[in-house]
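Q: Could you predict the 3D structure of Subtilisin-like protease?
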Amino acid sequence: MATKFSLLLFLSFSLFFFLSFSVSSDAPRTYIVHVAQSQKPTLFAAHHHWYNSILRSLPPSAHPPTLLYTYSAAAEGFSARISPSQLPHLRRAPGVLAVEPDQIRQPHTTRTPRFLGLADSFGLWPNSDYAEDVIVGVLDTGIWPELGSFSDHNLSPVPATWKGTCQSSPDFPSSLCNRKIIGAKAFFRGYESYLERPIDESVESKSPRDTEGHGTHTSSTAAGAAVSNASLFHYAQGQARGMASKARIAAYKICWSLGCLAAMDDAVSDGVHVISLSVGANGYAPQYFRDSIAIGAFGASRHGVLVSCSAGNSGPGPFTAVNIAPWILTVGASTIDREFPADVILGDGRVLNGVSLYYGDSLPDFNLPLVYAADCGGRYCYMGSLESSKVQGKIVVCDRGGNARVEKGSAVKLAGGLGMILANTEASGEELLADAHLLAATMVGETAGNKIKEYIKLSQYPTATIEFRGTVIGGSPSAPQVASFSSRGPNHLTPQILKPDVIAPGVNILAGWTGRVGPTDLDLDPRRVEFNIISGTSMSCPHASGIAALLRKAYPEWSPAAIKSALMTTAYNVDNSGGNIKDLASGKESDPFIHGAGHVDPNRALNPGLVYDLDTEDYLAFLCSIGYDASKIAVFTREPAGGDVCEGKVGRLGNPGDLNYPSFSVELGGGSGVVKYKRLVTNVGSEVDAVYTVKVSAPPGVAVSVSPSTLVFSGGSKTQAFEVAFTRVAYAGSQSFGSIEWTDGSHVVRSPIAVTWNGGFSSSI
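A: Sure. Here are the predicted structure tokens for Subtilisin-like protease:
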């Protein structure tokens, strides 16, 4: 990400969590307490009275327990700050299902409508009325309401179904809410509990006002109104427009300078239709029953609310995707066909491509001496690390990593340097992220960076300059490509569920920004802008959220699973040059563990033909199939753990791979060498009497058979079942990929297949 959200953020639904730094082993921490709502004693008029009674029943402590939040929509229970020594007693309290500590979370931080094919004259935009009256809940750093992106011009009155409010404060009077921003709340009690003091409002606002920029950017990406002549320092100039430009925004400020809380429960109670959450776990995704996002999203799904989440920015390593519960739409990040070229011209005449958003004094019209930061104090260009005598008046090559990209340029400037070339290392490959540098600077890929460093090493008098070429739209390089930072599968919790689900634009995205901080989000940046260009799966998530809002308006009867299915089965895997989508980390072709079902295609999603639908009972059967017992499932159902909650459900779902998911992830190796999955599709096309035939592109080394191979729909039969058998026939490496397509001549309903091999392969089988 391009913001100071490299700081750890902590998240739970309707709660606020923080990592405890106290040296005391019994120092209070914040916990989620899940309860069975049916177990509330009748003597308590309200649930919060019951919760306070539970806390008062705990053994004495030097730190009295404090009730922070209660919740009842996405989940049932409360959050409280208590001492660890009190935990055993709390867990034994009648009606308590589970108690979980805080979990570390971090945020995952316009040309895109046209790149996505959205137009006023045809397709999803006019057929959904731009999602008017659909309410998108954005859980982030708040919102900067004065921007033109949040104008309510030509919008109808606030939907009558809306139950939320606009919190008023000195810097955010309720009058700032309108027919676009229909709700705004700030959740700070847990934050103040962690700080053990009130928020310093000279540093950050104790209101829904966004002082970081991230929330304003995601909100305007998902549902911002059209703004003409938008740009960042004249870069990307044009009309800025959210995906769902008539959707309403409910802003929930959950992130602060040191962490995040979430308001999923409040958002569901308030009446949102889509939740956009660009936040996730740090490290591997936690088990579903310990993952507050997964639990909250399960509750939201029960209420018909689609939850769209970022996959994370921990790529390109495998198993890094987070927010991977099957009831969540998990979104990776990709590029668009817009570049901000800033090329390096070496003294020997070679030109190496780079990107930059620098706006300021030009370099001299002659080449400058060129040095490598490793020879001047430190390759990563930390502040104060460079020797002025070796840097002054020169262009410095700094390696990416270790500190903020723009901060490196500031270190060069502080040491007297005139320019910087930021060189990718193997970790980032050829991924290029444009930044609004504070001195003349550009970023180059690993290959170019190595060439520049080799030139410095071999040349007696190495020199260079940087040529800034503004905004360029076109087919070179090809787009989309998957960002190297985008987190990937396989799914380390449930290998039978393919994650991420889709990719969407998340690199160098222009959208609204806060007026409180500069475009780099660094304290040393005095500039203020209305729009900013940043990158991350935090940017791809609101694109998908906005498209989901459009589909919600077009098909209000569709379930969240049906909307997700439409997005997945219509996604594409070919870039604008006609080749397969590539992975910027390796330069090779991407695959379903990297891009899921593919890149979202809004107009095709309007008419998917068939959908793979799911409901709460299906998800409960899934939890049973992965071995969850009654106590774990109770966290999701909010009912006591008595009895066999999985009785009858295991038969409904023989194994996790039988979940009616729009993709196929298969483990082969050992046993019989055959894996079978069942699926059920629903005809949502305009032709009631439709006949679909299957086309299989089998992964190398795998035989795939589908039975039946033809699906016949009619007025009395809108759903049809089929079974897929995967048989290993030859070892084709650790992973192989293919697809299954159903077509009736006008629709193509595509599902990716990802196969992993475990336990080796016996040629005798």
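Q: Anything worth pointing out?
A: Residues 112-337+481-606 form a domain with the Rossmann fold fold (CATH 3.40.50.200).
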